[in-house]
Amino acid sequence: MEIDVLSSDDRSLRFILKDGNPSLANALRRVMTSEVPVLAIEDVEFIENSSSLYDEVLAHRLGLIPIKTDLSVLNFRDECKCESGCPSCQVEFTLKKKGPAIVYSDDLKSTSKTMKPLPGIPLVKLGKKQAIELKATAVLGTAKEHAKWQPAVVGYKYYPRITISERCTRCGDCVEACPRKILVVKKDKLTVTDEKECILCRACMDACGEEAITVEGDDKTFIYEVESTGGLEPIEIATRSCDILMGKAQELASRL
Amino acid sequence: MIIPVRCFSCGAVVADKYEEFEKRMGKEDPKKILDSLGVKRYCCRRMILSHVDLMDEVIEFDEKGLKST
Q: Nearest CB to B69: which of A119, A131, A230?
C-alpha cells in the first residue's frame, strides 16, 4: 500500500491511497471521523446567564466549539491517574461578558497556553441588560460518543479512470457535458486535463453518441479529502487513525 | 435563532463564516461568497443560506422582563 500526498495545509489534506480495497478505505474514513480523540467542552457551570439562550442551549453551543488539542500531553479523563481532573486530562475555561455585545469563542479564557478554542464563532448575542458568566471544562473524547468530538470531515472517491477509444470523432459533445470541465479537444485529439477532478458522474458517457468514452472508478485506488474542524492538524488525524486501526487489528489477532 | 455552530449533516464548523457572509451579502453573488469562504458541500451551504437570524428580536422581547444591571 502506498500513499501520495496531493496537497496539505493546516486545515485540509488530500491524498491518494494506492493498492487498497473498499473495506479498508471505508474503515480508515470511519476511524478518522469517529475514533481519533480531540478536546471538547463537556461540563459547564453557569454563574450567571441572563442571555436569551437557555443554559442547555448555550452549553451545547460551547461543546461544539473545536479546541486546539495537544494529544502528547493529554489522557482520557477516566484513564487518568488523578482522582477528579488534572491538567493532563482536562482544560478549563472561564467566560465573563456583559451586554450589549456578541460573545465569541475568543472570549473563553483558557488555563492552557496552547489549547485554545477556534476563534470567531459567535456563541450568543447579549442585550444591554444581559450578561453571562460561566466555567467550562474540556476533556478528550471520540465522536463515537458524541459528534462534538469529531475532529474532521473525511470523504473519499474511487480514482477515476477515463478511457477514450478509437471511435471518438472529436465532436465535442462530452466537452460540453462535463460539469468539471476536464475534457478538451486539443490538436484534433480529445484529452483529459486532470482526471483527479472527475466526479464519476458519467455525463460524458451519456453525451457521447459513439460510446467512445468510458469512465470507471478504480476500486483499488482512492482519493481522500480530510478537512479538519480545527482541533488537530489533518496530517495528525490521518496518522493517528492508522495507529488506531492497527491497534484494533492487533487486538483482534491477540484474541483469536 | 442564532447561526448553528456546526453543520447538522457533516459536522464542519460554519458559525465562524456567517458574519462575513452577512456583511458581503447583497453586494456579491452568494455563490461567490460561499466559494471564497471555503464552504464546499451543499449541506454546509444550506446552513448559511437558509438561516434566519432572530436573535435581535428575541433579545428585545426578553429584556422587557429584565431589571437593569
A: A131
